[in-house]
Amino acid sequence: MGIELSRRAFLKSTAATALAAGAYGAGLRPALAAPELAKMDALAQAELVRNGEMTALELVEAGIGRIEQVNGEVNAVVTKFYERAREAAKGDLPEGPFTGVPNLVKDLDNLEGTRATSGSRLFAENISKETDPLIASNQQAGFVMLGKSNTPEFGLLGTTESLLLEPCRNPWNLDHSTGGSSGGAAAAVASGMLPLAHATDGGGSIRIPASCCGVFGLKPSRGRIHLGGRSMPGDIGVQHCVSRSVRDSAVLMDLTEMKRSDAVLAPVGRVEGPGKKRLRIAFNTENYYGTEPDTDVKAATESVAQLCADMGHEIVPVKNPVEGRAFMEAFLTVWSSGPAHLVGLAKENGLDPEQVLEPWTTGLAAYFASKPDGALEEALAHFAMVTEKTKAFMAEYDVWLTPVLASAPPKIGEQAPAVPFDTLYERTVEYVSYTPLHNVVGTPAMSVPLSWNDNGLPIGAQFAAPIGGEKLLFELAFELEQARPWAQKYAPVFAG
I want to staple 479 with a disulfide (CB 3.0 to 4.6 A). Which of 7, 119, 274, 322 is the partner? Predict the structure, then answer.
């Protein structure tokens, strides 16, 4: 800049104002003060470090301060390793777009030397012996991990209310769920603790909490992100992040997607703004069962369809191509095979499953045990049939728009793991009756925070594209972010 500004002088400078306004959310006051940092996205925060206006350590300390300010109300961060983060920030961090920016690891994944519970009493004292590939990639992008984010036991529920870690509460209304299973990640971002957080998705676990917490979340295509050989039955699990800005998510995907010669998908590359192509968008609001969502969700999704039409996209009303009961039975058969293994693991170690696993987990194990021999293979065969049918359906359109969930975020306790199994089963399969299909088919899908109901609770819109279509989704997300901005919508519980 020609002259070296002190941080105090920078706070008063027009340059700071321009930086904050141009980065994410016009109209911010000058950057660097703690409340303003909370409103900046990850790329804008990293730019402060890159420009020498803040050190990585200062950025990390500010993130720690924001966590300590609001986490007592939200319970998004369940394991903290602040000293480890401080030491990392003092060292030679990798130079990248996110250098110095605080992040969290979802407590289903591993960071060597840190507690890894998977939200379960079975692993309450478990310490990771290695770091998972995507977490390593995040660190290579310059992120500094401050702790672990809350998750339901083994990510098995669409709410984050584990008996070990206790409920994560929605910053928009503390009496309501954050969704799951990346509920801690989404709540941390929505409450301003962090601008972005690691997340995973095996049946909607990025999109569901993104919808519930009013943040952006894109589930990548199967094969987009290297998971180091870890996979769920049916290969339904993927990983990425939740974020306040579209650009943070887009840049992170460019940095972490597989680009080797043997990659199964052509790279997305760096997506930086809206596309010019007008899209043919399939649209429906009914779920897999042919049932309409709650009135506020239906109205919100129809409003998003109209917004897309106003932007020049073609909206084509369609019928959901999936027969819901058969699909969800197959999905839950696959889903419950993991809990069945966990019950066996507990018994092998001389433990009472009822004492170390939640009622929902043991109930799923019993559900799987009730199935006839060959049920898992039959369910996977059903997956293959549904995949081909859905691919053929989606080939007729550029994008498919639906709700993310059948209702706005429910109250804490309504879908908690101790609710009687049959009741929770019915509530869950109805609530998450839009997201699992894209895990089975492997298609990319995103929740975009475009609506809030009359009670101030967020309602996301789900857009999906054919496999490999992340670029198209990001371009649409950039366009929607400009058309109906959410950057300056702040939850009542916000560290700013």
Answer: 274
40: alpha, beta or left, given left = phi > 0 and alpha = psi -120 to 50? beta
Domain 41-323+380-483 fold: Amidase signature (AS) enzymes (3.90.1300)
Q: Is 205 a catalytic residue?
A: yes
Q: What is the pLDDT of residues 388-432, one digit of tens each?
A: 999 999 999 999 999 999 999 999 999 999 999 999 999 999 999
Q: Which one from 118, 149, 181, 243 is the annotated catalytic residue?
A: 181
Pairing status of strand 196-201 against strand 238-243:
antiparallel
Is 106 one of the catalytic residues?
Answer: yes
Question: Domain residue spans in the chain?
Answer: 7-40, 41-323+380-483
Give the pLDDT confidence of 129-149 residue by residue, as tens digits: 999 999 999 999 999 999 999
Spatial contact of 477 and 216, defined as CB atoms under 8 Å apart:
yes
Active site residue 182: no
pLDDT for position 227 = 87
pLDDT of residue 31: 44
| Residue pair 213/187 in contact by the 8 Å Cβ criterion | yes
Neighbour count for residue 268 (Cβ, 10 Å):
22
Q: What is the pLDDT of residues 77-109, one digit of tens each?
A: 999 999 999 999 999 999 999 999 999 999 999
Q: Which of 380, 375, 401, 417 is nearest to 177 (CA)?
A: 417
DSSP state of 257: B
Strands (E), 178-244: 196-201, 216-219, 238-243
Looking at 39, 80, 106, 219, which residue is catalytic? 106
